[in-house]
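Chain A, query sequence.
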Amino acid sequence: MKNMEKNQVAVLDITGVNSEGEGIARHGDDGYVVFVRGALPGERVKGRIVRVQKKFATAVTLDLVTASDVRKIPKCRHYGKCGGCQLQHASYGAQAAIKAKILTDALRRIAKIELPYQIDCTPSPEEWGYRNKTALPVQAGMGRGKSSLVCGYYEQGSHNIVPFRECPVLTPLLQKVVPSLIAALDAANLKGYDEKGRSGDIRYIAARSGGSVRDEEALSCVVAAHDYSKRELGRLKNVHQKLGVAVPALSGSVLNINTDSGNFIWGPAFQSLNGKRQIEQRLAEYRFQTDISAFFQVNRGQAETMFSHVRECVREIGAQNVLELYSGVGSLTAYLSGVVEQIDAVEEWRPAVRQMEENMTRNGARNVRVHPDAVERFLSQSENTRSSTYDTVVLDPPRTGCPEAATDAIGRIAPNHVVYVSCNPATLARDVARLMEDGRYEIRGVRAFDMFPQTAHVETVAVLARRR
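Chain A, predicted structure.
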């Protein structure tokens, strides 16, 4: 029962952390839940209530009454205002423990799974400077005499932008490319986007780093709010040609047009502004071409570790005929191709499909059939799924997880094993619960990987086995 008011100040004891990186406290005799930004387990804080709902309230930390011994000074000047990171105030060892607990709690609360062992969270090889891709919203500036655009990350829980000054989780190259790109677009007097009026020139910018060895080159993209005239396009090309000279590591730039009113970043059409349209990424012995839009793990060092683990899981269960869903540009596909007989890889995003086909040839993966289709449509129409020829399903869906129709179809296929790679413990737990209905499957293993240091996000690999 609600027993707090907005702007109330209370002393709160923190017992855990939720999936948003907020401390969890209970207040009053009825144990009313309060989520406290900037608080860590074991701390007592003075917090101010900023939001009240029937079942919980949200507070911000005003002062530390008792501080945790794992608390540290955040590295980024924007921390606490920018919504990109949630755990910079915790030591790295504590971050890994928090993420393992978030995953454990989600499986227990949503899927009703009590594991007989403690989940391990494999730390990232790099705590900082690991993120090889970013996309930043761009909004209209402050008017005459001011900047024509404001670009940065959103504040937590809002669409207010924190102007970009630094981002230490980005690769060192992107930390140079992003501010140079913002300054060049602003100097060209290109206008940021007005969400309410649906006006302006630029909605987002994006950048990705990579290269044949590590991070020696980058791509950039401007996502436009409207079709550009020939004159406007010429001006934008001129900006990027000059930028390519000023920042030689920026080897290519593209323009994307997105006139849709939704929040999805990409529109359907891309065109070159300067230089390359693709960049090479390397994971261990594998090479992949990616454009700016296709999904590729942002932490390459940790991706190598996680993909090797998935490959070993698939090898140990004896998988031979594999259906892989949400395959992207084929990075995990290439890892699996060497330990199974056949893979049917399904991917909807057409630019990624083209790159996956190229990447399979580049990596000698001749046992992969690429299916350019939405997962739900493929599962409902494919003769292969109806005849249940797959012994293993491997899937790596977006944060929203699998539609119920997809998990139902996997149940009908009835593979011996399901290997589920997830970046969201809540949707993973929901989908696992669906697959385990009526005792069809049981959990054989769960392992967490810290793909996103300094944030509350965690990657998970879960292996399910069909009950005989």
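Residues 92-110 form the longest helix (19 residues). The two ends are 46 Å apart (CA to CA).
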